[in-house]
Amino acid sequence: MSTMGPTVTEVADLATMPTVLGGLFVEQAHHPHVRMRERSLTRSDWLPEPDGILVAELAADELPDRTGEVEQRLRDDGIAKVRLDRLLTNDELVTFGRRLGTVMVHETSPKLQHQVDDGLVFNLRRERTDVTSDYALALISSNELTLHAEVCVRPVQRQPRYIALHCVEPSPPDTGGQTVFVPMTAVHDRLTRTQAEMLQHAHFSQFPESPPFLSWRGGRPVFSFRDFGDDLLWWRYVGPRGSLTAGELNETLVRLLESMYDPDLMTGVSWRRAELLVWDNWRFFHGRTRIQETDTEARHFKNIKIN
Ligand SMILES: [Fe+2]
């Protein structure tokens, strides 16, 4: 078993804590991130990859003996890719994941249950060419996916630490459909100390067990946050109030979103068939650019979550 398992962070149950301040964030057209998001997530050309992301080109049969190199790169950089000479079977993919931790049962919407193999491997396959307003179906439609930490509304213990994506069939280059990444440390660095402290006491109020939007784990800032787009984001603040107002918290969320969509921070993966990517969900926000290609519905990735 790997030594890279998550550090369990103590997060008090929000339901037992007094709400000091509550509020609602509704994005406005004039918020800077709205245009920045539109520009970055609807582009068809692919962004460059994060520096040094490729660990090795391997025969798939070599992967079990070389997984330690992937672990090391994950530890150093939080993201690692290997290029394989063939596709992994589901069993091989799960075995790889088990070297990094526990492969999680894939909880998903009933609408997507048919995409899950053996409870563990999710087939991220485009089934629809439209752009839908249905949150669950967006994954298998052409939608861009706004930046998020995976299942950030759940308690830390039920969030994946690592996510692996195995490319069965990529979108053709420069036709959108690119997985994109933004490092959380750099987002944190764009906040003032006061803003960061505020986010350490703010939670999604509809999810009483959700961690604070920002916490420190292993000496690094970790966001449990996602961009709700134009959906309503209800929040609760449970820290020392001082003179804090709901307006100030909302202004901090605008700043957080603006930082997340800073074009200087975003990188993407130039997918090729049979590549395997793993990243640390505590170190990167991720998302997807809109799929522009319409001729085929072949785009297909396999996905496992590890904690
Ligand atoms: Fe995701």
Description of the structure:
By secondary structure, this protein is α+β, with helices and mostly antiparallel strands. The chain has a single domain (14-306), classed as Double-stranded beta-helix, CATH 3.60.130.10. It is 21% helix and 25% strand. The chain has helices spanning 32-41, 63-77, 90-100, 184-189, 193-199, 246-260; strands at 21-25, 54-58, 79-84, 116-117, 121-125, 145-148, 162-169, 179-183, 202-204, 214-217, 220-223, 233-237, 267-268, 275-280, 284-288, 300-306. α1 packs parallel to α6 (246-260) and α2 (63-77) crosses α3. It is globular, with a radius of gyration of 19 Å. The structure holds fe (ii) ion (FE2). Fe (ii) ion is lined by residues 148, 150, 286.
